[in-house]
Amino acid sequence: MPNIRRLILIAVPYTWLLLLFLVPFLIVFKMSLSDQALAIPPYTPTFQFSAGWDGLKAMFSAFDLENFTWLSEDNLYWKAYLSSLQIALFSTILSLLIGFPIAYGMANASAAWRPTLMMLVILPFWTSFLIRVYAWIGILGTNGYLNQVLLWTGVIDEPLVILNTNIAVYIGIVYTYLPFMVLPIYATLEKLDMDLLEAAEDLGCSRFEAFWLITFPLARAGVIAGCFLVFIPVVGEFVIPSLLGGSRTLMIGKVLWDEFFSNRDWPVASAVAVVLLLILIVPIILFQRQQQRAQEAKQ
Amino acid sequence: MNKRFTWFNVTALTLGFVFLYLPITILVVYSFNSSKLVTVWAGFSFKWYGAVFANKGFMDAAIVTLKVGLISSTLATILGTMAAYVLVRAGRFRGRTLFSGMIYAPLVVPDVITGLSLLLLFISIGFSRGITTIVLAHATFSMCYVSVVVSSRLVSFDRSLEEAALDLGCSPFDAFRNVTLPIIAPAVISGWLLAFTLSLDDLVISTFASGPSATTLPMKIYSQVRLGVSPEINALSSIMIGVVTIGVIMSSIISKRSAVRRQRQEQEALAQI
Question: Which of A135, A258, B19, B96 would be a feasible disulfide site paired with B23, CB 3.0-4.6 Å?
Answer without folding.
Answer: A135
